[in-house]
Amino acid sequence: MQIAAYEHELQAAHAGDPTALADLLARSRQDIRRYAEYHCSVNDVEDAVQEALILVSRKLSDLRSLECFASWVFRIVKRECNRMKRIGRRLAGEPITDDILPGATPDAAEWRQDLASALQSLPYHYREIVLLRDLEGLSIAELGNRLGVTTMAVKARLHRARALAREYLRA
Known about the structure:
Belongs to the sigma-70 factor family. ECF subfamily. By secondary structure, the protein is mainly α. The protein is built from eight helices and no strands. Helix 1 crosses helix 2, helix 5 crosses helix 8 and helix 6 (124-135) crosses helix 8.
């Protein structure tokens, strides 16, 4: 990875310029991929590259010295490859069972009926908040204004309502 070739781009990305960050990641991708091919199993290369790019985009502003960018990125890739190897080893010894196969999926009419029953089973104040949020698309602030409660109360009520609906659907 030749840092001098795009040092200006690196500085701009470090400062928070999203265009420079996108260009930097696009330029770095091939070098990251080559490094991942050396350290990862064939199946994990693209996953390691993606994870590394995500981490670089999130943490670049925290990098103290831009001269360390290349080694920092390569450490991220190597760490991702090692993490995937550990996961692979852990999963390698497990037998494949039938419980990982998808179950029979009910048709749309059954889903609608189950969902309607779940909503009907909710107390009125929970049903109201779910319908306003998920069907009418009101924001948390709009819900608070309409219902005359705080945003924290809206969030708590919505969380409880969804949990109750999930519990009903599992039964």
